[in-house]
Write a structure and sequence with these properties.
Blueprint (H helix, E strand, L loop, with lengths): L1 H6 L1 H24 L15 H10 L21 E4 L4 E3 L14 E4 L2 H6 L3 E2 L10
Parallel strand pairs: 2-4
Antiparallel strand pairs: 1-2, 1-3
């Protein structure tokens, strides 16, 4: 080892110097980078029915726990499908983003979607496997 260091002393010092400069430059770059500029955050609001369904799944299915508010029934439901497709999704699943708004069909329950001939999407966690 001693012979190696004597023979390649200049090369070892050069490599150590380059590594030291690289680590110092990286550290200074990280220290001076502005915080929070990782990218733009996108907030997506879910239909209220999906939020209620998520609360029910977490064990808060009593109307009393929701402040006396009964489940909603409106145009948007707890499940969505494309009128041109064969699968249904939860509103928060990524597949919903690929369905045009005018092609979306909303269902109040999973049973309703199944009765219409739709199957659960395989890439959407939280749906019962059929």
């Amino acid at each position: 080892m001693k012979d190696f260091l004597e023979q390649y002393r200049h090369d070892v010092l050069l490599a150590a110097g380059i590594a030291l400069v690289a680590f110092t430059a990286f550290g200074l770059g990280r220290a001076t980078a502005p915080l929070g500029e990782k990218g733009e955050w996108r907030v997506q609001e879910l239909p209220l029915e999906a939020s209620v369904r998520a609360l029910e799944a977490a064990g808060g299915d009593d109307t009393e726990e929701r402040g006396g508010v009964p489940p909603l029934s409106g145009t948007a439901g707890a499940f969505v499908a494309s009128k041109n497709g064969t699968r249904y999704y939860l509103p928060e699943c990524s597949g919903v983003n690929r369905i045009k708004e005018e092609n979306r069909i909303w269902f109040a329950s999973e049973e309703e979607a199944l009765a219409e001939g739709y199957a659960p999407a395989k890439n959407c966690p939280g749906l019962s496997a059929q």
